[in-house]
Design brief:
242 residues; alpha+beta; Glutamine Phosphoribosylpyrophosphate, subunit 1, domain 1; five-stranded antiparallel sheet; globular
């Protein structure tokens, strides 16, 4: 009997990580920034149909990059999770930490058990009564979660984008200042050909699309805002960066 080829677990994890990392890096970036007036979400995206930002629940929003078909399935699953938990218990029991944990478990299970890991990276944002109570959870392709920063930069060449936000962010940041930081992060980080979906077609790379930061830049950005409201739904879509 032929013995199966042995591959060290370390090599398997490395190969899966490299595969997923390359897939995420091909996507145009997104950024989430906590500001005094709320949490700003922005993404480089020229598609009017394939959204990368979404409301999840009253004070929760979602941003993702990578393979659209994969993160869209997670977005829908997150909405169902939030609706069911809010109906079964209380609306205040639906939190960004709980949603990020559910996403992390799903992504980690795919990373270790499925034939192919998910080529996605996402963020869950929760707006609080004050800026200090805002939360931004950054979930990587292997299920790792971080929440140590009040902002996150996803996809693309993220190092330049992270540096731009890290240098300019401060407590009490106004919405226009957050918009300028988001623009700097998206234009500095964007060197990918577009987010991919089934069939290899870019989710935001259709023919004739402008490059964010160039002519007609506003058409190349998808923007959302979690407003700091007393009660009720906080998410709204904006036509352009503040």
């Amino acid at each position: 009997m032929t013995m199966p080829l042995y591959v060290p677990p370390e090599q398997i994890i490395k190969d899966r990580s490299d595969f997923a990392r390359r897939g995420v890096a091909r996507g145009r970036p997104a950024v989430v920034i906590s500001a005094a007036d709320g949490v700003l979400l922005a993404a480089a995206n020229v598609s009017r149909a394939l959204k990368k930002l979404s409301e999840i629940y009253d004070r929760l929003a979602f941003a993702a990059v990578g393979k659209w078909s994969e993160f869209e399935a997670l977005r829908v699953a997150g909405i169902r999770y939030a609706d069911l938990r809010g109906y079964s218990y209380a609306r205040t029991d639906v939190t960004g930490r709980g949603l990020a944990g559910a996403y992390a478990q799903t992504i980690a299970a795919a990373f270790t058990g499925d034939p192919k890991p998910l080529e996605i990276e996402l963020a869950v944002a929760q707006v609080g009564a004050t800026q200090e109570s805002d939360a931004v959870f950054h979930v990587l392709f292997d299920g790792s979660v971080s929440d140590e920063l009040p902002w996150a930069v996803l996809g693309g060449a993220t190092q330049a984008g992270r540096e731009a936000v890290a240098e300019g962010w401060r407590p009490g940041l106004t919405l226009p200042e957050a918009g300028r930081l988001a623009r700097a992060a998206l234009t500095g980080a964007d060197d990918g050909p577009g987010d991919s979906q089934a069939g290899g077609v870019g989710a935001d790379s259709r023919a004739g699309a402008g490059t964010p930061g160039g002519a007609g830049a506003e058409d190349g950005f998808e923007v959302g805002l979690l407003r700091r409201v007393a009660s009720g739904r906080a998410f709204t879509r904006l036509q352009a960066l503040p």
